[in-house]
Amino acid sequence: MTAGQPPGPPAVPEEQGVGVSVAVPSVDAAPHSQPVAWRHRHLLDVDVLSADETELVMRTTDAMREVLGRPIAKVPALRGTNVTILFYEASTRTRVSFEVAAKNLSADVVNIATATSSVVKGESFLDTLRTIEALGAGMLVLRHAHSGAPYLAAEHFGGSVLNGGDGWHAHPTQAILDLYTMRRRLPGGTVAGRKVVILGDALHSRVARSNIWSLTAAGADLWVCGPATLVRGLEAWAGSGVGPASRRFTVTSDVNAALRDADVVMALRLQQERMSGGLLPSLREYSARFGLTRERLALARPGALVMHPGPINEGVEIAPDVAEGIQSVITEQVANGVAVRMALLYLLAGVRGPR
Ligand code: NCD
Fold this sequence. Notes:
Layout: E1 15-16, E2 21-22, H1 51-68, E3 82-87, H2 93-104, E4 108-113, H3 125-134, E5 139-144, H4 149-156, E6 160-166, H5 172-185, E7 195-199, H6 206-217, E8 221-225, H7 228-231, H8 234-239, E9 248-252, H9 255-259, E10 264-267, H10 283-290, H11 294-297, E11 305-307, H12 320-323, H13 330-349
Parallel strand pairs: 3-4, 3-5, 5-6, 7-8, 7-10, 8-9, 10-11
Antiparallel strand pairs: 1-2
Helix pairs in contact: 1-13, 2-13, 5-6, 5-13
N-carbamoyl-L-aspartate (NCD) binds at residues 93-94, 165, 171, 174, 206-207, 269, 271, 309-310.
């Protein structure tokens, strides 16, 4: 149990996680009334999460899945809380998933698409934040093209900030739902010791960066594979910062070596909107050399999981028959995303105090 836990008995008996134990909140009740060992007011990236905290998120997500299975998939936990969703970039699943999650917790949800807001009239980022706060927002879900924008928001916004993706930097809720999906599907319920491959455009990918942190911290044998131009610099990323010195992490352009005996293969979209040119000879060439086809997938372990954060460019980074094949858990990732975001909104809403 980490420090700072309020006094009182746990809401439900302690459950055994993988190597750690956590007290899971009773999610029908308001978050403030729960004795939960969670200290983060914001969720900006996964690098600040301890093993216990990750376990707590996983267990709370289980509780939210149980809520989602009820005839009325709703709890009153966030009644009276305004969750504002401010996206400066295109999104379908992340935005909708946060909206559905907040509504399932009975929050009041406000959606701001910047293309139709005063941002187009030149309103600054900080003015927009001040306006949103004055209009009553208690929690802010932010997606921004600039890496670091949620960190700036967290310094100025009075409530909680959840990073819904910032530039190339981080996408914590995606990494957490990816971890959750793997744990549910892998025998033994853990990624520890499993070979996980992130295949594709890791350079421009905030999904890859957050996943590198959470998966190596969870003990996975993580491989990042793509053309040399699209995986450069990632070794240094994994080696920086705090965390176990023994992180298992390989960066390669050898797709056969990466896929051989893999337990999980996560394909990434080629983020062409972030490329200034010259990084790839052609889409066809990329697809021929790095696309996840059935033949390539056969190098992995039988039954290896196929994942993708979406949106998918079928026929480019992944073949349609693989994306829709029996090994694919892509739609499960989307469904789990709702429960994970419910859990995170719930846990963050329980934390108050100075910025
Ligand atoms: C990703 C994103 O926007 O970071 N998608 C997502 O949120 N599920 C990945 C992408 O855009 O390719």
